Amino acid sequence: MPALEKANCILTKISENPNKLKMIDLSKELNLNKSSVYTLLSTMVDMGWVIKKENKTYELGPYFYHLNQMLFNKSNVVQNFYKMAPKYSAKVGETIQLGVLKGTDVLYLGRIDAVSTVRLVTDPGATFPAYASAIGKIQMIDVEEEEIRKRFSKCSFEKKTTKTTSSIDELYDKVQSARKKQIAIENEESAIGFHCVAAPIYNYEGKIAAGVSFSMQTENWYKKFDLAAVSIQHLAEELSFSLGFN
């Protein structure tokens, strides 16, 4: 039986009998070699998967509660986005997007389209370079400069337009500006004729969990920017509150 299967059997048994089974009990009930169970349990204790109690029984550790919270946050923010965002999209009359930062890219999780003849290519499930998007930059405002430089050290900074951010220094300067304003602005970096304004979504720990942005064409940008900036901040605040941020 492969190690992962053994570990899964052990974890399942512990979850069904918290604080009841010792190592020898797990070995007998699962018909597994004692030394194998001992090794796996020791590793899982070190990783925070299980906790060994004073009476030498076991219970699930904090790692699984952390994973559960992450799963809850992700699914919860998407559900609430589709509940809360439509009123803001209708108010401003522009498209709203939800995305999370994954390495050097943004993974888009949701979108509310405005009535428009132009359709964006960032469908939910699609990725886009974070350096070329407002929704990417806003999620880096709490990231240290050293980490940003490390993360983008091998990035080629492919030019989407002539206005796309083209270096780590330029990216960091724009992140600094977003940090001061608490909104990130992107002017024709992803596509000529399009602009974005984004705000951060915080989770219950006070950490940035995602970002939301308004996207619009140049003809509307200067007329609607102030309303869009305030509205996207209000939406971000509502979504943050739904994740337990106060």
Largest sheet: 6 strands, antiparallel
DSSP, total strands: 8
Overall body shape = elongated
How many separate domains? 2
CATH-defined superfamily of the largest domain: GAF domain
Query: Termini, distance in Å?
Result: 47 Å
Portion in strands: 15-25%
CATH architecture of the largest domain: 2-Layer Sandwich
Order of helices and strands: HHHEEHEEEHHHEEEH
CATH class of the largest domain: Alpha Beta
Explained architecture:
With about 250 residues, the chain is α+β, with helices and mostly antiparallel strands. The protein has 8 helices and 8 strands. The strands form 2 sheets. A 6-stranded antiparallel beta sheet has the order 5-4-3-8-7-6. Strands 1-2 form a two-stranded antiparallel ribbon. Strand 3 and strand 4 form a beta hairpin. The longest helix has about 30 residues. It is elongated. About 35% of the residues are buried.
Primary descriptors:
elongated; alpha+beta; 47% helix; 2 domains; 246 residues; 6-stranded antiparallel β-sheet; Beta-Lactamase
